[in-house]
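Database export, one record per block. Field names are fixed; values are copied verbatim from the stored entry.
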Amino acid sequence: MQPLVRAAIVAAALAAVTRAAQWAVPAKHPDDPSRAAASSAARLHSLCPPGTLPDDNVCIPVPAAEPSQQPAPTRSPEGIPRRPDRPADYRRYRLPLALDRQGRLSGTDVHCVDLDGQTGHAEVHHVGQLVGNSVVTRHRVREAGQPREYAVVYGHLQSTAQGLRAGAIVPAGTRIGSVQAAAPDSSKLLSVRRARPGVQLDRLSAGQLLLDLYTVACDPRNAFALKAPAYNRTHTP
């Protein structure tokens, strides 16, 4: 090979190596240090393995996020409707409020009543402001052979029974409080909520009792006991 040809080949090879090195080495930014720093950080970020982040030219492990301690809230906007085997007429049930033949309030006193299938006496969970001036009682029942818990909320009370307090045992017939003669209808004065599976009502605050996360609103006629058969035969519509 002629010396001149050999020199040309060597020069071309050196030029190619120089160009490759220029591509491999990041361009410097003498007039803009921030651009140079950003370019360096981007290169390091691309080199850090998953689960790490760059910090001062070092890949630092990132701790895993803690799992949520609370289950995602579930919604039951319509609650549990009246079962088809339960009468529609509220007058056929043993309610805390007295109703006349037209289904309107006929008294001002409110008394605790046992729920259908209840085991043991009810217990007062809350006395004070909640749905207006309110009393909340907890009830344990058996439904289809399974234990369940219910909360009965007596709201918009004019007054509560003297000495009534949280933790008190309230047998059926115990006076809870009173309502005004011109009080809202019974559906606004009285609400029933069933605990979700695994939820213990005695561990909840009064406000938590009203959250769909912990309890489900249900038609009161699913929970209250029917009156004596003789009454139902006489008052069947």
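Remark 1: Residues 3-24 form the longest helix (22 residues).
Remark 2: The two ends are 120 Å apart (CA to CA).
End of record.
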